[in-house]
Amino acid sequence: MSHLQNLLLDTLLGTKHVDSAALIKLHERSLCVASPGFSVMPGDVRTLVNGFAKNPLQTRREGLYFKEKDYKCIRADDYSLYAKNEKTGVVVVKTHLYLLVATYTEGMYPSVCVEATEKLGEYLRRKGN
Fold first, then answer.
1. Cα 31 to the chain's mean position, in Å?
2. Alpha helix (H) ranges present in the chain?
3. What is the Cα–Cα distance from 108 to 60, expressed in whole angstroms?
């Protein structure tokens, strides 16, 4: 298992408030690593990359279509996208090289998912990733 995959498993899934996670290579627009059983299709990668390419206000207005679900965008800025669909959600944090994606499901605390994902994103940015 790679160092990056270990980071995802330990720091995100280890909280028990992240259902699945992935790292997407920002410039190549391709999946780098993902938690077991979590696949991010090329269309979903484009959606997430484009969410940051647009004006954040436009992303908040339009929401996100991810993993065959419409998500209402509740935060969109230069480094973070948070979106929810009923009792599930997706948190996306941008670093220099990656998009860090984490999902949560019913029964999980979204705030823990957000905090863990943001902290890992900050760690990766400090490391130049």
1. 12
2. 3-7, 42-53, 56-62, 110-126
3. 23
d(CA 21, CA 81): 14
**Per-residue tens of pLDDT for the chain, all 129 residues:** 588 889 899 999 999 999 999 999 999 999 999 999 999 999 999 999 988 887 788 888 999 999 999 999 999 999 999 999 999 999 999 999 999 999 999 999 999 999 999 999 999 999 988
Contacts of 75 (CB under 8 A, 6+ apart): 60, 81, 82
* AA identity, residue 57: L
Q: What's this model's pTM, rounded to 2 decimal places?
A: 0.94
The answer to whether the beta carbons of residues 14 and 6 sit under 8 Å apart is no
Domains, in order of start, for the chain? 3-127 (3.30.450.30)
